[in-house]
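hi! just following up on the protien thing from before. the input was this:
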Amino acid sequence: MKLWGGRFAAESSEVFERFSGSLHFDKKLVDVDIRGSQAFAAALERVGILTAAEREKLVAAFEELRAEATTPAFYEGATDEDVHTLVIRQLKAKVGGLADKIHTGRSRNEQVSLDVRLWLREAIDETRAQLAALMASLLELAKKYPDAVIPGYTHLRRAQAVLWPHYILAYFEMFARDYERMTEARARVNVMPLGSGALAGSGFPHDREAIARDLGFAAITRNSMDVSADRDFALDYLHAANLIMLHLSRLSEDWILYSSEEFGWMELGDGVTSGSSLMPQKKNPDSLELIRGKSGRVFGDYSSLFVTVKGLPLTYNRDLQEDKEPLFDAVYQTVGSLEMAAVVASTVVLKPAIPEQAAEESWVVATDLAEALARAGLPFHQSHVLVGKLVLESTRDGKRPADWTAEELAAFDPRLTPEFAALLKPREGMKTREIRGGTGPASVAAALAEAEARLRLL
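and the predicted 3d structure came back as:
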């Protein structure tokens, strides 16, 4: 059966049927399609199209279909063009001609918008739950090593020393913003489109606010043409998902590097790594590499829908059928990557002595010295030059900061008085960075506590 056809004298070609069919992917929407139709049955009763008995019969039949749709048998042999047609065909097998009333005044254009919004609303909730789980896992990892010192990098060169929790909290903030973006996207998804018709609005006086209440929507859409053409809400999710995957990819890259033999800071658990079919010694960070690789897939999903929509005239065009596969894929990959990252974080073992040694052997204390000179009254540019010369001489002579004594510093330049020697240790310099948001120990402890409090509110 089809939901259209009276105007056509000939059947669709087999190639067109195969080319245009969407059931193989939009059957994912079957549960929300049925729930939307149950709410629409109530709306049809309110405008006199259905009697109370008819509405009850339809709602009960739809409930049976919801249960049946969870089994493979529901789809066996189905050749329907889309999920909406499948549901109506199965409904008709249960209630006969009464099924023909359920589509009164309703267009598939608004029905698709409703279904995707219902499905995506739940997908956003799952995405946010996985974000919160990852953020919790990161905080636990930060608390395992509260005093660990690591080099912070710019240009992948050792720059300044930071505390390990300060580094982890940087990613916490990224994912916190991602959570905010998902919440904002949900607000735009959570708007009820039924009553818009194909593009001009329904010919029946539906109480759209009542339908919205029945389906748990916060508001109703304001323009029927916009409903027919709009996929902004899907792009909102994809944009937020792209930033999640971008942040996950950066985290993955960090930990791939830091767990390598060249860095050797950390070890990943056996449960999230794999070996080589040829080289017995290998322990590969496959989980992180897959996250990094899947980010490209999600970026492509965003580009796919973005380009699909960008040239479409108002209102509905069949091109919009191509919204679902990239959206479904992006949700699946993003949720899965978040879940994987949380598991990886729970397995990380930091080897604090190695990054601290790396910090101590390098000149990450140079800025601490220059700023101390500035606090003592020397103009910062002059302080910068003085410390730069100290670093230059040290690198020529192969001297580490710890190799300098207070007397040698004073001999190098009398402005480097004995108290500056303490700043040659990275831990000392960090104590000057107690500004809010900085890596001073007290500041980091406060930020960690604040992060835990924020997470509890999600």
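The chain has three domains: 14-101, 109-197+221-356, 359-456.
The first helix runs from residue 14 to 20.
cheers
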